[in-house]
Every structure is written in structure tokens, then in C-alpha cells.
Amino acid sequence: MRTLIVGGVAGGMSAATRLRRMDETAEIIVFERSGHVSFANCGLPYYVGGVITHREALLLETPESINTRFQADVRVNTEVTAIDRAAKTVSVRDLATGREYTESYDNLILAPGAAPFVPPIPGAERALTLRNVADTDAMAAKVDDVLAGSEKSAVIMGGGFIGLELAENFVERGLKVTVVELANQIMAPLDVEMAIRVQWELESRGVDVITGVSVTEIGEGTVTLSDGGTLPAGMVIAAIGVRPE
Asked: Which of 77, 84, 113, 207 has its CA 20 to 30 A from that of 184?
């Protein structure tokens, strides 16, 4: 039986390794669009903040190590562009070379995951997101650039887990941080009585927290808020949430 898996990291690789444990004869091929098939998602903000000092510590497995342990053919920088359900084939593009080809399957597993949501506002292309290793590299480089400039500030859109972890790490790096949350509290899963204590802790560390407003425009060095106010912003992060891929 030949199983193709679209998407690696947590979902796809869990499926691949579980399938191997269930069937030692199965042929397993995993297609991952990014350059990394297994990495420490929860460590990404802490590499940006310098708590994790070695980038290699984020990388858990490689295609070679997975093939050695689980006999799975893992292809990174490879995108599945179409599915022919009648013929039971997928169209594949090698993003490094541009080569296109097809692969047949007996079983097909879709595990493309999610993508960060960036609101459709003017200047949205200037907002950074944090979802994978490439995002992490871009964000770490941007922090270095901002710290080397005159406007050492960051505005984080979203007061959830990722937004607050980045706020913590940006403060440790020396940035002036403002968290902007559309809801009337940060940390939506918490009761308001608990969330306010998180806000107080952030504010005691120098983080400005603004609730009940959103960012409506991202300028070259500022953001505009829905209440008409503006904030300095050497960099802007979109940590609003994700949408299915």
C-alpha cells in the first residue's frame, strides 16, 4: 500500500510514524512545502528572544533521520498542487528546481495545517508572522535591524499565546513593546479575573497593553488604531490567529 501525506511537522509526521508502526511494509511519501519537516514550534519565540541560542536546537528531525528510523520518503521544499481523485494521483512541484511530476497513491492523507491570519489592511505586507523556521529567521533578523535603528519598538497585533510570548522575548531583547488586542481582554481562554493579572504582569515589565481596539493601517514606522490613535512601530507582528491551509 502506498500512502502519500501532504504536509509534515506535527500532523503529517505523526501520521507517517504511526502508519509505519502499524504496517512495516507500507510505502510512505511525505511532501512538505517548507524546508523543515520537524521542528520545535514552541521554541520559536525563544530563539527570537535569544533564550535558545543555537538555531540547530529548533530542528528535531531531518528527512534523512526520519528515513533511517521509519523508512519514509520525506521530500521538503515540495508542494502538492493538485489531486486527481479518479486517477488517484497528485501533481507535485519541486520548489527548488521547478520540476513538476505526478505520484500515484492508494491512500492520501491531507495534513497541510494552518497559516497565520493577516488582516487585509493597508500596509499588511509589513507585518511579520511566526509559524515556521523561515518565519523565525526573518523575525530574528528584523529584531536585529530594529535594535540597530532609532525606533526600537514593536507592535504586536493579538494578545494570545504567541503574541504574549513574543512580547516577553522582545522586552528581553530591549524593544519597547505594545500589545494591541481587539477583544476586551488579552488571553481569551482565561476568565477576565485571571487575564487582568497577566496584563498587570506584562505592564510591570514595561509592556503597554491596549484592548478593545485593532490596527487599521501599518505605515513605514507607525501603526494606526481603530480609535484614531497612532503608535510608533519599528516592527509589526500579526499574532491574531490562524486559518486552515
From this structure: 113
Range of the domain at 161: 116-244
With a threshold of 0.85, does the pTM exceed it?
A: yes
Mean pLDDT score of the chain, rounded to an integer? 96
Pairing of strands 215-218, 222-225: antiparallel
Sites in the chain below the pLDDT cut of 50: none
Contacts of 120 (CB under 8 A, 6+ apart): none
Predicted confidence at residue 73, as pLDDT, reads: 97
Catalytic residue among 1, 10, 42, 194: 42
Q: How much is the pLDDT for 174?
A: 96
39 with 130, same domain: the answer is no
| φ, ψ for residue 199, nearest 5 deg | -60, -45
CATH value at residue 139: 3.50.50.60
Among 112, 127, 153, residue at a domain's last position: 112
